[in-house]
Amino acid sequence: MTAALRWIMPHPFLTLILTIVWTLLQNGISAGMVVFGLILGIIIPWSTSIWWPDTPKSFKLGKMFTYSLIVMWDIMVANVQVAWIVLTRPNSKLRPAWVIVPLDLRQPEAITILAGTITLTPGTVSADLSDEGHSLLVHALDTDDPDAVRDEIKHRYERRLKEIFA
After folding, report:
1. Phi and psi angles of residue 69, each rounded to the nearest 5 degrees, phi first
2. Whole-number CA gyration radius for the chain
3. Distance of alpha carbon 162 from the chain centroid
C-alpha cells in the first residue's frame, strides 16, 4: 500500500468492517448508504489513528478465526457452568481464587485479546496487568486448583495467541 493511501486509510480492514456494518444497520442496501458507510469507514479510523498502536508485524487471520470459535464455545460452556454453580451451590461453598498468570506474550494487542477473552468467559475476570506486562491477575469464581486455572489459560488461550501474533 502506498504511503498516500496508507495516510488516507490507516486501517483498511477496519474501513471495510465499518462500511459493511453501517450498510447492514440500514435494513436495506442502497448505493447512498454504501458510500456513506465508506465515508464513515475512512473518517473514523483516520481521525482516531493517532491513538492506535503500531500494527502488529504478523497476524494469522485463519488462526484468529479458529481462536474466535474456541472462545465462543468456551463462553457458552462457561455460562452453563456458572449458572449451575449459582443455582446449586450456596455462596458459603464457593471457592474463589486470585490467580497470577505469567505471560509469554509481549505484543499489547495479544495481551489485550487475552485479557478480554478471560473477562468475557463467565467465571473469570482479568483484574490487573503487572507494570512490566509480564503477568496478569485473574479472579476465578470457583476453583479448587488455581494452578489448573493458570495452566488452562496458558494452554488454551495464550499458546494460540502466540501462534496468531508470531
Report:
1. -65, -40
2. 20
3. 14
DSSP-derived secondary structure letter, 52: S
Residues 70-82 have a mean pLDDT of 96
Pairing state between β 97-102 and 135-140: antiparallel
Mean pLDDT calculated for residue range 77-82: 96
Q: Which three cell numbers stand for residue 8?
A: 488516507
**For residue 18, what is its C-alpha cell?**
465499518
The full length of the chain comes to 166
Kindly provide the residue ranges of all beta strands, DSSP E only, lying in the chain, ordered along the sequence: 97-102, 124-129, 135-140
Closest CA to 164 of 117, 107, 102: 107
Report pTM: 0.73
CB neighbour burial string for 40-74, b if at least 16 within 10 angstroms, e if fewer? ebbeebeeeeeeeeeeeeeeeeeebeebeeebeeb
Residue type, 113: I
Paired with 71 in beta bridges are none
Contact, 18 vs 37, CB < 8 A? yes
CA–CA separation, 100 and 108 (whole Å): 18
Q: pLDDT tens for residues 104-147? A: 999 888 999 999 999 999 999 999 999 888 999 999 999 999 99
What would the grid cell of residue 53 be? 498502536
Cell for 33? 448508504
